[in-house]
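User: Structure please.
Assistant: Input sequence and predicted structure:
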Amino acid sequence: MTTIVEWSTIARNIACITLNRPSAHHALSKQMLDELNKVIREVNADDSIYCTIITATGERSFCAGADLKERKGMSDEEVVEAVRFIGETVSNIEKMPMPVIAALNGVAFGGGLELALACDLRIAANDVKMGLTETSLAIIPGAGGTQRLSRLIGIGQAKRLIYTAQPVDAQEALDLRLVEHITERQSLMDEAVLWAKAIAKNGPLALKQVKLSINKGIETDLETGLIIEHLCYKETIPTKDRMEGLIAFKEKRQPTYIGK
């Protein structure tokens, strides 16, 4: 069986996870989900990784969502289980401890966009389209799309995109703040790596704690969020990295962080 999800270290402290099933537009088959979860576990276990990029091979698709051909022969119960598995996988991406950047090299529809929504940041080639198109198939987004899209771009715009099932181009996605940046196709990975390098040069334990603080705090009221922030801040105080940052600042040099 050919491997269809791979990862490698592409720069110091930076991993890249690559979906590699271009003949099916990187649709989320069971094999792809199994391999993606395996890769997520491997990246999470590598303490040298401070930032991760997720992208796909080719220029046509980032991810077309669920594998509808695979789904044809399923019972209703099996379909529900398949959607649950996609949702769990998407949540596993969201729970990765380091910042994660989605580099959208092609269309991202349905579960493919839901996957991108679970990442911390999204950079798109300026000719791609994306959308939650499930209602056109008489279903709804089932891997977190109704929740994450609403939180990201606001409830009104999220309802518009989901109700109409209409995809948006890269420029409208940027205007809606669905993506953080768009760029020429040939520059996509270069831009993603630049962002990842800017992130990975910072304290890895601080990155983990600030991601946790933002993600948990946004789900609560301000008072509770401030408590979460304080608890996450306290985790950075007894670290060697914090002392290294202070010493490097005093010595006017770049710090060398070790994640401890």
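DSSP finds eleven helices and ten strands in the chain.
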